Amino acid sequence: MTLINRRRFLVASGALAAGAHFPALAQSAPLKIATIGAGNIGGGVGSLWVKAGHEVFFSSLNPAELKPMVDALGPKARAGTTAQAIPNGDIILLAVPYRAIPSVAKEFAEALKGKIIIDTCNATAARDGEELVALTKQKGIGLATASFFPGARMVRGFNSIGARILQEQAHRAGDRLPIPIASDDVAAADIVARLVRDAGFEPVMAGPLARAADFSMGTAGYGVHPNAAALKKVLGV
Ligand SMILES: NC(=O)c1ccc[n+]([C@@H]2O[C@H](COP(=O)([O-])OP(=O)(O)OC[C@H]3O[C@@H](n4cnc5c(N)ncnc54)[C@H](OP(=O)(O)O)[C@@H]3O)[C@@H](O)[C@H]2O)c1
């Protein structure tokens, strides 16, 4: 962690730890989560949280298609439009193709102010276009996504491991699969760390949001690592 990043992290965490917006969220009560996107990642990770006892409101462009999934998950799962989902989530799992982020932000950034957003989205030129990929490289992907959602409590996580592996290895025996997270907001990161555990994995705090670049696609921090100690070594934390 550079000195500047460390300072930024400490300043942000101190400010937010003092005035946590969601005191109830840090306890063990079920959380209210909304997903924006309910495909491989939004549907998959959201389902793990429903099974852990949380309430999850899934949203997508075609929410009627989500009915079989939420019916199978039971009463703690609901589905609807993104406009319906956001008021039903204190925590938002953002799981859309990166190219959708500008339009999601245009429509919903205001409604997302003050909410914890877990940013799972990766950018590839083929799917999302050169311009967005360049932005993520220039700013670092965590800060790039955050720039679309001013005032949201951004946490980067669940971006670095394939959706199928997450389903197969949740709650595995032995050392749990480690998941790196990064945020400038320590209180929000603590809540997301709990959600990583509840989904059946081991959270590894990489540091401030800028450090999301160290577990973005193509880096050593991306992908499967055998356990938290091994991932910490790669991330230097
Ligand atoms: N798949 C993986 O293994 C994996 C792993 C880590 C990270 N990621 C990242 O996670 C993100 C999601 O990937 P995925 O594999 O879950 O994609 P996916 O299966 O294609 O699902 C994308 C979801 O986003 C919804 N969506 C698209 N545009 C939207 C908008 N403007 N507003 C609301 N919802 C919208 C889609 O709705 P409809 O279905 O109704 O069109 C769909 O539910 C991507 O950024 C990806 O890079 C993926």
General description of the model:
This protein is of the alpha/beta class. The chain has one domain (3-235): NAD(P)-binding Rossmann-like Domain (Rossmann fold, 3-Layer(aba) Sandwich). Helices cover 43% and strands 16% of the residues. It has 11 helices and 8 strands. An 8-stranded mixed β-sheet has the order 3-2-1-4-5-6-7-8, sandwiched between helices. Helix 2 (40-51) packs parallel to helix 9 and helix 7 packs across helix 8. The longest helix has 16 residues, at 3-18. The termini are close together. It binds NADP nicotinamide-adenine-dinucleotide phosphate. NADP nicotinamide-adenine-dinucleotide phosphate binds at residues 36-42, 60-62, 82, 95-98, 100, 103-104, 120-122, 159, 162-163.
Oligomer: single chain
CATH topology: Rossmann fold
The biggest beta sheet is recorded as: 8 strands, mixed
- Ligand names: NADP nicotinamide-adenine-dinucleotide phosphate
For the record, the CATH class is Alpha Beta
Strand % is 15-25%
Shape label: globular
Mean pLDDT value: 91
Derived structural class: alpha/beta
Q: How many domains make up the 3D coordinates?
A: 1
CATH superfamily caption: NAD(P)-binding Rossmann-like Domain
Low-confidence stretches: 1-24
N to C succession of SSEs:
HEHEHEHEHEHHHEHEHEH
In DSSP terms (H or I, runs of 4 or more residues), the helix count works out at 11
The strand line-up of the biggest sheet is 3-2-1-4-5-6-7-8
- The Cα radius of gyration reads 16 Å
The total of beta strands comes to 8
**What is the terminal separation in angstroms?**
8 Å
CATH architecture: 3-Layer(aba) Sandwich
